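Reading group handout, session on sequence-to-structure problems. Before we discuss, look at one worked example. The prompt was deliberately terse, the way you'd type it at a terminal:

> structure Nucleotidyl transferase AbiEii/AbiGii toxin family protein

The input record follows.
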Amino acid sequence: MTFHTVPEFGEAVEAAATHFGLRVTFIEKDYWVTWVLRNLANSEFVDTVVFKGGTSLSKAHTCINRFSEDIDLAILGGHELNGNQLKSRIRDVEHIVVTGLEYFKHEAETKGSRYRKTYHNYPRSIDNNEFGAVRNQILLEINSFTNPVPHERKAIQSMIGQFLAINFPDQVDHYGLQPFTINVLTRERTFFEKLMSLIRMSHVGQDAVRGKIRHFYDLHLILNQEDLIERILIDANFNLLDLVRADDAANEDFAGEWLAQPLAASPLFIDHNRYWTELAQQYESELGDLTWAPIPAAASINESLGEIQCFLSRYDHQALA
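And the output record:
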């Protein structure tokens, strides 16, 4: 990827922003998010790292219509490495994927032996500071707590690359903007990770849930994917929920008494109608600033929460049997 080195880059960013109906700052940041993922694709770690989280839903699965800019990576086969090997692997992966970005120390960063959370500046060509709810840096998270299965190979391409491919395919090839493939966590597994995150946060308090307000949108969109309708909230997926719970139990930051409680009786789901009523306004204002398509009505999100609550009740019942 070399397009950012030519004068036409800024003009292309603006044209792509008009095409997609997004802010120019989103398009430019997407280019650098893609840059990080391309660094991974071209590295020796391409087969041992899995791309996951909200950004994977938009960049790889294209199943949500919101901008998601953080990069969440998981080490595959981390249980086969000892502590020092894991720490070195995570550090080596970070070093390679952020090549070309500028690290800066952030008060929220974490550098542990099994988890790293670091912040990086990227070169900016656009003189515009309208980021809204999006950060003007790239947050990179790499962890070995999660056993990232199941995963699949998916194609990734920057929005600028997608835009240029329509009318200027020769430039896509010339500037290295072609799609590439990496390992990506499946939508189904991602659904249950986000669901468990919300349940865990609800035990912390509503302010913690508010920090994950985008998860509600993601859950609803995944549930309503045409090829996944009636394939998520089924008893056959109890095993996926078991996998996520096991990973949470292995993570000292996530583990706690909440994991022993019935999931359907969590503060979020014990009365989801009341709980969601208190969150709906924030959902509408925050998600409206991040999406390039109309967001589902708050009432529709609540309907999905009701379906999820029924699924969790069945799960809790079989867990006690």
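Points for discussion. First: The longest strand covers residues 115-121. Second: The mean pLDDT is 93.
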